[in-house]
C-alpha cells in the first residue's frame, strides 16, 4: 500500500490489518520515511521496531574486484532443491525478526518484475555457502537479500555474490542499484560502502502496532 494512501487516511491501515487477520496473518509491519509518515504511524498507535540504512550504487561505476579467495566457489541458479539450505543459511545470519521462511523467500524473488536468484556452493559435496537475490524494476536494480553462512564468511563470498548481481543489473542498463541494511549491522554497511554504494541521508523506519 503506497504511503500517500494511509498518510491521508490512517484508518485504511486498520482495515487492511483486519483483513489480514481474517486471512490468518498475526503480525503487520509498515515502512516509513520522513517525519510526516512516522508521525502518522505514532499517532495511530504504532511503535518503531527497527531502522534501516538506505544505500545506492550508480551503475556508471566500474565493477568492484572480486577477492581471489572467492574464486573457488561456484555460482548457479537457485532452484526448489535449494530452498531448505537457503533458509538454513538465512536464519543463521539474521535475527528472528528478519529471518525468512519459504513463503518470505518466494515473495522476495517475486517482489520485482525481473529477478536473479543465485546460490553459491563450495566443495565436492556442493555445500551451500551463501545466496543473493537481485531484483529489477522501473530502470533500477535492488539487492533484495544476501546471506553467507557464518562458517564461510571472510572469504569474499559476499563480494562475489554482489558483483554477480551488479553485473546482471548493468547488462539491463539500470541507473543504479539500491540496498537496505539494519543500522546496527556495521559489517554490512562497511562492505556496501567499500563496494561503491553511497549512504542516503534518509533511512527507513519499521513500525508495527503497539501492544494494546
Automatic annotation (TrEMBL):
CDD domains: NAT_SF. InterPro entries: Acyl_CoA_acyltransferase, GNAT_dom, MshD_Acetyltransferase. Keywords: Acyltransferase, Transferase. It comes from the Bacteria. Gene3D superfamilies: 3.40.630.30. Pfam families: Acetyltransf_1. Its EC number is 2.3.1.189. Residues 73-212 form the N-acetyltransferase domain. GO terms for molecular function: mycothiol synthase activity. PROSITE patterns: GNAT (PS51186). This is Mycothiol acetyltransferase. It comes from Ferrimicrobium acidiphilum DSM 19497. The gene is mshD5.
Amino acid at each position: 500500500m503506497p504511503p500517500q494512501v494511509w498518510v491521508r487516511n490512517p484508518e485504511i491501515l486498520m482495515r487492511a490489518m483486519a483483513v489480514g487477520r481474517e486471512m490468518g496473518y498475526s503480525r503487520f509491519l509498515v515502512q516509513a520515511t520522513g517525519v510526516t509518515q512516522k508521525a502518522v504511524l505514532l499517532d495511530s498507535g504504532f511503535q518503531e521496531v527497527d531502522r534501516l540504512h538506505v544505500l545506492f550504487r550508480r551503475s556508471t561505476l566500474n565493477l568492484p574486484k572480486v577477492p581471489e579467495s572467492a574464486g573457488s566457489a561456484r555460482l548457479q541458479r537457485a532452484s526448489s532443491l535449494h530452498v531448505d539450505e537457503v533458509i538454513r543459511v538465512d536464519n543463521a545470519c539474521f535475527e528472528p525478526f528478519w529471518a525468512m521462511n519459504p513463503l518470505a523467500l518466494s515473495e522476495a524473488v517475486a517482489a520485482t518484475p525481473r529477478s536473479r536468484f543465485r546460490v553459491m556452493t563450495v566443495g565436492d559435496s556442493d555445500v551451500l555457502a551463501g545466496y543473493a537475490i537481485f531484483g529489477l524494476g522501473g530502470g533500477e536494480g535492488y539487492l533484495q537479500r544476501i546471506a553467507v553462512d557464518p562458517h564461510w564468511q571472510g572469504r569474499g563470498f559476499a563480494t562475489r555474490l554482489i558483483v554477480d548481481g551488479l553485473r546482471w543489473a548493468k547488462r539491463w542498463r539500470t541507473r543504479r542499484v539500491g540496498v537496505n541494511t539494519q543500522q546496527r549491522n556495521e559489517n554490512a554497511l562497511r562492505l556496501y560502502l567499500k563496494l561503491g554504494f553511497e549512504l542516503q541521508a534518509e533511512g527507513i523506519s519499521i513500525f508495527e502496532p503497539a501492544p494494546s
